[in-house]
Predict the structure.
Amino acid sequence: MRAYDHKLSTGTTWTWNHLELTEHIGNMRCTTPEISWHNRDPVLSIDIQNGFYETSKGERFWRMATGGADSHVLIWHLFTCENNGTTVKCVADLERHQKAVNVVRFSPSKEILASGDDESAIILWKRKEDCDFFISPDGIENKEHWSLWKVLRGHLEDVYDISWSPDSNSLISGSVDNTAILWDIHKGRTSGILSDSKGFVQGVSWDPRNQYICTISTDRQCRLVDISTKKTVQRVHKSTIPTPPDHPLKNKTVRLFYDDTFKSFFRRLTFSMDGTLIIVPSGIIEPQDTIEKIPNATIIFSRHNLKEPIMILPSLDECTIAIRCCPIYFELRKDGPTPIITLPYRIVFAVATQHSVLIYDTQQISPIAVISNIHYTRLTDIAWSSNGRVLVVSSTDGYCSIIHFSENELGNVYSNEDAAVTSIQFSDNNAMDVDLAKCKKTYTSDDQCKKTCSDKKAEETKQNNSNLSKDGLIKDQPKNNINEIVEETEDIQLVYNEESDNDIEAKSKNITTKTNIPSTTSNKTPRRVKLITLSSTKRKNK
């Protein structure tokens, strides 16, 4: 296994860690369009709508949304060229927010865009079909017309993260007011308030199987909440971790997450697309009784056991901020290592650290690619296109980078729809039930600790590409029953560290909240490029 380093003219460094991808490396592109995305203010969030679309001229594009510190939400069309190049065009400027927009998320149904801001408001937007061009008060020509549908008010402080339910009828939001709120979007009101957190809720994720919600906050707790009861069924902030037999941390309890000293406002965690895994950023391996160098990490749990991680992915000197799973499943590499997690396919996911993007899959513990030196300041969010070939990264330096993969560069798409084996009805009512697969324990270096897979199961899956008709447009996807398999397992004793809320000391912490960034026009002369420039002198906050 060899590494392949490729430096772009901009100084960007790529590192590929398995041979399969090296022959395609020349087809991959990373571009950072020099446009004024949000009047050169920080770009705090980014998302790409499911599916791609066509213009009247037959040009295919992805619809993308960004939220910035200038209090605006912008809608973009992202075009990809045959030579793997990309261009973006701004088609709408949504101006109803009064403060910085921390998160933007399209609904799975593609009908609604949700955006949360520093004024504790969540705005739901809908696009009007077949509208003429609209000129905004700032004099910007909007080729798409998005109207405010509803405003969700219930938080008392900044909204940091949002996650949609798979049916697009509900969403969960996390806030600086130490709460996570479930919303019924059709009624426009709360359906539940989760208030057991003792710190800022900086990350939320809704289970694709619609059974749980996972949150991460500055009190160092990751919580798994049952949607039906609104009760926390599991929480973790410290545990033992899988280590080699002679490792100094063997059988020792370590803290797993950063406290309020974390160097970002966001901890964007996620469920995997099949709901099997929970992947959490802001990990830190901090022994309780020893003084050692503390490595940063990404922590991976099984949905059935949040008491102990099944994998720990070290990120060395950079803390991890945001995680997104590629919506496409890939075939297992025949010449690759034994899968870390026993699934019939590979799940690929991207991890944003402060200054790099790490791309992992579930077949190996080391990243399959590292993209670094693409921005001057820390990253804030990442998003995949629904075909898994475009990855977009946002940064506080005011720019976004677009990473475009060539066909099969990440692997062959998994399309074995008949691979479903004998299945049984599986219940997730008790999240403490853990099924561990039969497999030998293997270990890597001291910096890379892992535990062999828990929760061996296979879901009958269909690729997102099958949602595209032959002409490339979106078509409706039929609803399928989820079939799962559970096999006989070995008896393996897990070490739990049960802890109730009473064991957690309520401390008054000196936490510096995010400074409100005034929405003023930049005094610097805007960069003039052929693509688009948004630094209009007419734009001012209301």
Q: What stands out?
A: The chain has no helices and 35 strands.
